Amino acid sequence: MMTLGRLSNEMIWFSTPEFNFFSLPLEFTTGSSIMPQKRNPDVFEIVRSNVNVIVGLQTQTKDICKNLISGYNRDTQLTKEPLIKGMGITRRSLEVLSLVMKKIKPNIKVLMNSFTPELFATHEAIKYVKQGMPFRDAYQKVKENLDKIEISDPVSAIKEVKSLGAPGNLNLKNYKIDKAL
């Protein structure tokens, strides 16, 4: 749920007019009570709030179990309700977010324009390391020349990043960004 909460919070921010990275599907938003132009990201707001409900249920379970002597205690029967409730909230959150995420539209031009050169400073340092330069020297060289970083193809640069959880492990070769521009 914490991962879903973080995703929800980021989608709320990244779909605001200030960022405009993503467009939310209208069927998963509601109108504002006072601003006719605004669409509220209700699904994401509810999922984000449900993280706190889950944390409360977790605390309830821990509090029931703390200070129990070893062996069977009837107190533990009271842990079933928060567990079942938490599992239901998590399951519904996953189901709803899976529906919403399938319909989110990335604003490719805005996303591509947000790739400023300094985002690739580490990428540049690693290129020097691959050429044999010690990392501390590569780091210093890039730091002193931040204004000279040029990335002609940010998508290729992102695909090169391969580590646990990195974009290069997301099989992006099948995603055609060029067609979206």
The strands making up the biggest β-sheet line up spatially as: 1-4
Tell me the β content: under 5%
Figure out the total of helices.
Answer: 8
CATH topology name of the largest domain, in short, is: Fumarase C, Chain A, domain 2
Distance between the termini: 34 Å
CATH architecture descriptor name of the largest domain: Up-down Bundle
Report the sheet with the most strands, covering strand number, pairing sense and barrel closure.
2 strands, antiparallel
Number of domains: 2
Helix percent reads 40-55%
Round the mean pLDDT to the nearest integer and report it: 88
Low-confidence stretches: none
Give the class from helix and strand content and strand pairing.
mainly alpha
Q: Could you tell me the radius of gyration in angstroms? A: 23 Å
Instruction: Report the principal-axis shape.
Output: flat
Number of strands: 4
- Helix and strand element order: HEEEHHEHHHHH
CATH homologous superfamily identity of the largest domain: Fumarase/aspartase (Central domain)
Keyword list:
two-stranded antiparallel ribbon, Fumarase C, Chain A, domain 2, 8 helices, 181 residues, 2 domains, mainly alpha, single chain, 54% helix
Topology readout:
Elements: H1 2-14, E1 22-23, E2 30-31, E3 39-40, H2 42-65, H3 80-103, E4 105-106, H4 108-113, H5 121-130, H6 135-144, H7 154-160, H8 177-180
